[in-house]
Amino acid sequence: MIGNVRGIRAIYMFEMARFGRTVWTSLMLPVITTTLYFVVFGSAIGSRMSDVSSVPYGAFIVPGLMMLTMFTESISNASFGIYMPKWTGTIYEMLSSPMSPLELLIAYVGAAATKSVIIGAIIFATAHLFVDIQVAHPLLMVGFMVLMAVTFCLFGFIIGIWAQSFEQLQVIPLLVVYPLTFLGGAFYSLDMLPAAWRAVTLFNPVVYLISGFRWTFFGQGDVAIEVSMGAVALFLALCLGLIFWMFRTGYRLKN
Amino acid sequence: MTAVLEISGLGKTYKSGHRALAGVDLSIEKGEIFALLGPNGAGKTTLISIVCGIVTPSEGTVTVGGHDHARDYRAARSMIGLVPQELHTDSFETVMATVTFSRGLFGKPRDPAFIEQLLKDLSLWDKRGSKIMELSGGMKRRVMIAKALSHEPEILFLDEPTAGVDVELRRDMWNMVRGLRERGVTIILTTHYIEEAEEMADRVGVITRGKLILVEEKNALIKKLGRKTLTLNLAEPLDAVPAELADWTLELAGEGHELVYEFDSQAEATGVPSLLRRMTDIGIAFKDLHTRQSSLEDIFVGLVHEPRDGEGAAA
User: Fold this and answer.
1) What is the mean pLDDT of residues A32-40?
2) ipTM of this model?
3) Nearest to residue B25, comparing CAs of B212, B255, B190?
4) Is the pTM of this model over 0.95?
5) Does the beta carbon of A137 lie under 8 angstroms from any beta carbon of chain B?
6) Chain A neighbours among B 50-109 (CB < 8 Å)?
7) Contact assignment for A10 to B147 by CB distance below 8 Å
8) Contact B89/B144 with Cβ under 8 angstroms?
9) How many contiguous H segments (helices) and E segments (strands) does chain B have?
10) Residue B257's CATH number
């Protein structure tokens, strides 16, 4: 299935160069966002908040904050990466090249996921300036971060292929993913919610993802780590299945 | 000669139900320049897009250098370079970066010396550091050609290469195509400028309404379907073709000042000398005369606009 490694490298480097052109906005944005969140939630509000399950509130929001930014960045970078060639018409070159669909996927998703992981790392580093964070399972934490980046980049890739306008490109990240993440326990523990709302929240898939990531930090989450892992695997499998179908049918790529 | 591209029974029906291509069989020899002629919407671009892997055919097979273009797509596509009709470019990339990218995409190892020569051949070397959006339309067209040639393809598709291109670039392009042919590259171009086909092509295919209605050596085609006309400028205008000249198919033109005789130049007796003798006999004088060989354009217009079985003249 993989025979054209040079082709993968060409697209990967092309995408990384595209990020490189906007390197300052790309890197400053997460730093500024993180700082703002810490000023508001960490210092202003956080000082009046009690610890969440013996974790100081400032540290408690770090995993959620990383996930919130990484979800939206992954989706927008990966969707933009494949949507642009469709929009400018340069997709003709990819389609006429000796690249297999899997190779295209690896190149585009790999580049977008790389950027997301870098952004996640920057947020993590910036957070260190404000709060003291101990990571209970560092290897699992990195693994979770990479897995989340790849999964949401796959999801973004699907949106990029599906979208037929810039508006459609924006609608899922802004109207679905952002609210679900915000309400998915990025800034609070489900224990803080009234029982009825807690039950509703459990239908939000993002809850399981954030809870799992928080578990790698503090050894505890809203749901069991096994449940979180299952949710991640399910989401990943769904995205891969959908992409497999898109490539097989040439959905919105070929006539 | 061996066929480098074999197309058989190729057809395409778009989702809208539009039948863009039907039962196309075509065999392209290695090293030839083949011109695909047809009016807008005839199916030229669809045919090229299928061969290049951009459009999926509804039926039929394509073999490139012996490789099935669906099953063995890597080998097949590696042999092909495509210059599409539209100028699709990445605005923010430099010329050098985009051409190097194309070579990598096709799985070829880096070769800065080759890319340098390619850019020089296309007069792009001075612009290698410029962003594509800073280039003129003609320069962008050159970049598209450089991208298509960056992986040293054996078959080059040029889809309407000279549409909206100035005279200088058109001449450069023709020279480039001849140069490529000398190196053994097979070239398939689509055009609706007949002069382009007449100037460059070894063989010509005419496509209309999705059907390849004719494939022929260019010179043979002009010979076979070509007609000659003799125009006589008369000293005195005539009201009608005189009855004495009824043996020849004559027409009056130019308000009776011209007598036009259409004849088959391949025939043993063209009828020209006898016509002139008879006219002298009956006292019709003429001031001047000229003959004209019909061009590929006349043939093409005749083929494409001729209403065929069951179709009305308005079609």
Assistant:
1) 86
2) 0.87
3) B212
4) no
5) no
6) 52-56, 73-75, 77-78, 80, 82, 84, 86, 88-93, 97, 101-109
7) no
8) yes
9) 10, 14
10) 3.30.70.100
